[in-house]
Write a structure and sequence with these properties.
Layout (H helix, E strand, L loop, with lengths): L2 E4 L2 E4 H27 L5 H4 L5 H10 L20 H13 L3 H27 L3 H13 L12 H17 L2 H12 L11 H12 L9 H9 L2 H9 L2 H14 L4 H4 L11 H10 L4 H20 L4 H14 L6 H6 L2 H12 L3 H24 L6
Antiparallel strand pairs: 1-2
Helix pairs in contact: 1-5, 1-6, 1-19, 3-4, 4-5, 5-6, 5-7, 6-18, 7-8, 8-11, 8-12, 9-16, 14-15, 14-16, 15-16
């Protein structure tokens, strides 16, 4: 059993993760309570977490995807949102009889616990060790945009599934890797790019191996991969969730790419990501400027990790560039909720001296409280 040692005392990792998640959700409720008293809102806690795209996920969970007749006047439709999370929420609603808003918040809070626990295990096994594991748990639960991990959004589930896929890839459990990769592809459209983690990992792993009898050539790399049939099978499993959803849309609408085509309803069209980034940066003082600035900071951290041959950073560069190719809106959330950025932030924080750790923890806590408060206020800056 993995444990975290603090001040001479050893605490089981599962308990540490549970206490941190519990404390963070209590703090989230305290932010809600302050907002409720300040504005005199009579919305309950669970209803106040139902904002923005939560309505779409709720509609899918309760009524399915509908047909072409359900397209909104502005061109928006439910099939822009992938099915795994709303399917789970709908199933649990039928099972428990609880309202969808309650089921969604409770389900994602459980997923947040699993994310906290397995993210810490990932740090302990493949990264910098116990201090980074602790920093990771604190960043996820108290840092920027942590409110999304307790809403009907897919952030918590997608984050967890990526972690589990990469954990099993690097642990040699390649069929489990394929399973979690397939589930990630059914959670978000960018989940399909998780399949690229396999060739990236193969190249990095092959180059690290010391084998003087076999020179490092592309042909020998292919032979090395062919000795791992479970890895090949797991790789072919990873896109299945994505393609099954495409198959469903083809049968429902006659358009397997409907989830992309409907993005025009939100004003999103595929273009040059660098152009979108530049347009956001020159619009000083706007929400797009804030989103673009966060993206630039994240891209800098990603490039720093790529030069260290970090598998996670190379993969997440795709997760950043794909949504950026349609719009800069929402990029702060996409990037600050991406696992390599959280890993890198935790790594940097873990290496600071005690005073610097304290200062950064306070700063991140303030930002986390601020984004949660803005969520309850319905501010555009948090979406």
């Amino acid at each position: 059993m993995k444990k975290i040692r603090t001040q001479g005392k050893t605490i089981p990792l599962w308990l540490t993760a549970g206490l941190i998640v519990l404390a963070s959700r209590i703090l989230l409720f305290a932010v809600y309570w302050y907002w409720k008293n300040e504005f005199g809102s009579d919305n309950g806690f669970f209803r106040s977490l139902m904002q923005w795209d939560c309505g779409w996920y709720s509609a899918i969970a309760e009524n399915g995807y509908g047909t072409e007749a359900d397209i909104q006047p502005d061109g928006q439709a439910r099939w822009a949102f992938f099915p795994l999370v709303p399917m789970l929420e709908g199933f649990l609603t039928l099972l428990t009889g609880l309202p969808i808003r309650v089921v969604g918040v409770l389900m994602n809070s459980v997923i947040l616990y699993l994310l906290t626990l397995w993210g810490a295990r990932y740090c302990l096994k493949f990264d910098e060790g116990k201090w980074q594991a602790l920093a990771f748990m604190l960043f996820v639960n108290f840092g920027p945009y942590n409110v999304y991990y307790s809403t009907l959004y897919t952030e918590a589930a997608f984050f967890l599934l990526i972690f589990l896929a990469l954990y099993n890839l690097q642990s040699g459990h390649w069929l489990l890797m394929g399973l979690f990769g397939a589930l990630a592809g059914a959670t978000r459209n960018t989940g399909i790019f998780l399949v690229f983690a396999v060739p990236i990992w193969c190249i990095l792993q092959y180059l690290r191996e010391d084998d003087p009898l076999h020179p490092k050539t592309p042909a020998n790399l292919v032979r090395w991969v062919l000795t791992k049939p479970r890895l090949i099978l797991g790789t072919f499993m990873m896109p299945l969730g994505f393609f099954l959803y495409m198959h469903y849309l083809q049968g429902l609408l006659g358009d397997g790419m409907a989830f992309m085509h409907v993005q025009k309803g939100w004003g999103k069209e595929v273009g040059n990501p660098l152009v979108h980034l530049y347009q956001g940066l020159i619009d000083i003082g706007s929400t797009d400027f804030y989103q673009a600035t966060c993206t630039v900071i994240v891209l800098y951290l990603l490039l720093h990790q790529i030069f260290r041959r970090r598998l996670e950073a190379i993969l997440t560069l795709l997760f950043v560039l794909v949504p950026l190719s349609t719009t800069v809106a929402g990029m702060a959330r996409y990037t600050l909720c991406s696992f390599p950025i959280v890993l890198e932030a935790a790594n940097v924080l873990a290496k600071k001296d005690r005073l610097s750790k304290a200062v950064w923890c306070v700063f991140l806590l303030i930002v986390g409280i601020g984004t949660s408060y803005q969520w309850f206020c319905g501010a555009l800056i948090v979406i």
